[in-house]
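hi!! sorry for the late reply, been swamped w classes. u asked for the two structures so here they r. pasted raw, havent cleaned anything up. first the sequence of the first protein and right below it the tokens
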Amino acid sequence: MTSFALEGKVAIVTGASRGIGEAIAKTFLEQGARVVLASRKMEPSSSSTERRLAAHVGKQEDCVRLVREALAAFGRVDVVVNNAGTNPYFGPLLDADEGAWDKTFEVNLKSAFWMAREVARHLVARDAPGSIVNVSSILGLRGSPLQGVYGMTKAALVSLTQTLAVELGASRIRVNAIAPGLVETRLASALVHDEQISAQWLSRTPLGRVAQPADIAGIALYLASDASSFVTGQTFVVDGGVTAT
């Protein structure tokens, strides 16, 4: 029987203090998982079902520590959702400075690799199946004017997803990505609340609205659960139909 339940599973969700990450963590908890919520600005707390940990996943040592602390808290990790992201530069690609490049690649791409590597090593050592979910963007699937650096990190994340899926498949570790369109989050607030940009986006969105974080949580649940047990190496577009137009 197909099951979306997560009882018995332990998940790490990065960038979980708000927006998409918070919605995913909440959904996982509702479905029975024990969840480690991580964010750079997170007030540490703990309960029998969740841990809130402060971690800057743009630093490799914090990624290693985060997985170690998750194991100390719950004894295992079965799922990691690499959701943490940043977009510090909005403008022509040719004018982007090196600092913006470095920060964006560290948080959006390197952190996903570091987290995936630590969790995969743990799963292989346990000889256990698992799921790695990377939150990309439709800006990684097409040209991204004025958001070129961000778009490149998200495109690379799709490539990382596919390669890890092939390399880890024999170990029963599934690796997939989610590519949201415009979602009403703090990260996208400059776009959502710009009347001209928002109107242009909505004119190309068949469903006629901007996504809410909860709209992304459902596909994350599918990919974390046994319902997707034969799915790996895929990127799931959740954009209200924008890429179909």
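now the second protein. again sequence first, tokens right under
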Amino acid sequence: MVIGPKLVILGKQGAGKGTQCVRLARHYVIPHISTGDIFRAARRSETELGNRLREILDAGNLVPDEITVGIVAERLSTDDTARHGFILDGFPRTIHQAEELSKILIPDDIDLAIDLELPTELAVERLAGRRVCRDCQTIYGPASPPRVEGNCDFCGGEVVQRDDDTEDAIRTRLAIYEKETEPIITWYLERDMLVTIDGTGDPDDVTARLIRAVDRRRAKVSD
């Protein structure tokens, strides 16, 4: 029996996805699986995969499906996700990836895909001001900085700007999102697996909206 929900978080980068995923993971006590974090860890290595990912991410492009799907499938095969549920952040980005995710999860599927809506210019502003802890990956921004500048509130690690959070790379990622990722929203909507949540406003308010949406879906499924 799976204890927690199986969730996919969609929406433009900058909508507070990372922060909200961490909050949801703590609330439901489930793993937060960020493909971006996995890729960034790999790119710091001196492996062939790391070097390839470095070139892709530094240009602001998306990682090819054959790499991404394999990494996600391997992660979802572990006991913690199979037994407790999960939050997927950064995957799926395309209809093909969504189809592959459904195949990976057979005979089940995700409980809910959540689209965090945010205006593009606000997304650029947020991402350019985003900072992240090197150690635990907690995300901070202008509206929610660490209590001590440069130090993570949770683990004391160094809080830095990501290499791929330059404005040019951000706008490239958002343009790719508009072209390739938004159709997945329609794909999940047609399957009655999507809810749209306003990603603007106070982070606590956004978290409350997300929890209400997840709990409503879980209650509906259990009826």
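hope this helps!! also noticed smth abt the second:
The first strand starts at residue 6 and ends at 11.
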